[in-house]
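For the sake of clarity, the format in which proteins appear in this thesis is described at this point. The fold follows as a row of integers, each naming the local backbone shape at the matching residue. One such record is shown here in full, so that the layout can be seen directly:
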Amino acid sequence: MSNIEKLISIRNFTSEHHKGLVSLIFVGNWIISKHQNFFKEYDITMQQFNILRILRGQHPKSASINTLKERMLDKMSDVSRLVERLRKAELVERKSCEADRRAVDVKISTKGLDLLKEIDEKLDKLEEPLKQSLSDKEMVQLNKLLDKILSSYE
């Protein structure tokens, strides 16, 4: 009996594809849950963390709300609302775009950069089980397989 069969008490998958899909969903949700609990310690969500990481990659330049939407991992996020919460926490700065008054430019603050630095130091520990369970070669293989799945949904 495989781990997924033990964890969710299913013994008769309709196919290996069905078992694989259920396993992907289960593992994905499990990883999300671990990350959500981790980020609670810093009083931010995974989506807010994603925005901060995008902005750090843009630093010292700013990014538009549309740029953030395009680069978000969670495409269902309300980016404007997330940015506003980050602004209230003084983790980002936002201002009207000089070229287009309807657009908003967002830039990570020093406080936001400091928070990411603090998180980065502990994030490795959260990702340690993945590093222990898969070798570098296996991780390359997993990435290729996941990319193959993604390309089939385009």
Summary: The radius of gyration is 19 Å.
